[in-house]
UniProtKB/TrEMBL annotation:
PROSITE patterns in the record: NLPC_P60
GO molecular function: cysteine-type peptidase activity
Protein name as catalogued: C40 family peptidase
Keywords, ordered alphabetically: Hydrolase, Protease, Thiol protease
InterPro entries listed in its UniProt record: NLP_P60_dom (IPR000064), Papain-like_cys_pep_sf (IPR038765), Peptidase_C40 (IPR051202), SH3_16 (IPR041382)
Family (UniProt): Belongs to the peptidase C40 family.
Pfam families registered for this protein in UniProt: NLPC_P60, SH3_16
Every NlpC/P60 domain range: 127-255
Gene Ontology biological process: proteolysis
Provenance organism: Hymenobacter sediminicola
């Protein structure tokens, strides 16, 4: 669901809440509520009609653990009276392999999901997590660009990085300018490894773009659509337009071998 900059349907979407996420209410203004997302502390406005209340106990328990994520492009969670479509990367709160809990409601899910026992979680082997990251990154190819989007059906550059890293148990901040503060610098493009993040700035020096390194100095990023382009010390070279489109500022390694 959209989270907007102002309490009106005409305001820009600054982020999205995906199924299974939690938030706290900061302010109520008519039919709008100002919320802070629990995972990345992003603040914005949502329509109260889209609000699903949960108890403070549920919220505390939700925050205390990492939840499995869906791996299917689209699946259904259901109970006898409800069927809810969920997209790739959605959290499955308190999932036991068959059921999840949304507030007081028990729902069934029988699709593919990440599994900490299979090395997908934050304590799994780094190489195994990075393989999953690269595999799922390709699933997003051709997804349309949408400012503020975090969905396979509309996503921005930092939302894509946040969703992908979420699949392997790493919670990134929402914006590229925040994500750049994580990890260790990689000083040369030739030293990059799959899973590294590359950041790009504008003429004013502000971080405005981010992408995920793949093999052979290729980068997956959301620019018009999710696409793969070559990266060198200058930046991203767009094959279709035959020009550099993003100026490289810094490369960071988020996951490093122990």
């Amino acid at each position: 669901m959209p989270v907007r900059a102002e309490p009106t349907d005409k305001a820009e979407i600054i982020t999205q809440l995906i199924f299974g996420e939690c938030y706290s209410i900061l302010l109520v203004q008519g039919q709008w509520i100002q919320v802070k997302t629990a995972a990345d502390q992003y603040v914005g406005w949502m329509d109260v009609k889209q609000h699903t209340p949960v108890s403070s106990e549920y919220m505390a328990a939700w925050q205390a653990q990492d939840h499995p994520r869906t791996l299917d492009v689209v699946q259904i969670v259901s109970c006898p009276n409800t069927r809810i479509p969920v997209q790739l990367g959605s959290r499955l709160p308190f999932f036991d392999g068959m059921t999840l809990r949304l507030g007081e409601q028990q729902l069934f899910y029988n699709g593919a999901a990440t599994n900490p026992q299979n090395g997908h979680g934050p304590h799994g082997p780094v190489d195994q997590r990075l393989r999953l990251l690269q595999k799922m990154a390709l699933t997003y190819l051709k997804a349309p660009y949408l400012w503020g989007g975090k969905s396979l059906f509309g996503i921005d550059c930092s939302g894509l990085m946040q969703q992908l890293y979420g699949l392997i148990g790493v919670q990134l901040p929402r914006d590229a300018r925040q994500q750049i503060d994580l990890g260790q610098p990689v000083h040369f493009v030739a030293q990059t490894l799959p899973g590294d993040l590359a950041f790009f700035d504008n003429a004013d020096g502000n971080i405005v773009h981010v992408g995920l390194l793949l093999e052979d100095q290729q980068i997956l990023h959301a620019s018009g659509e999710v696409r793969i382009d070559p990266l060198d010390h200058n930046g991203i070279f767009n094959r279709d337009r035959q020009k550099y489109t993003h100026k490289l500022r810094l490369i960071k390694r988020i996951l490093a071998e122990d």
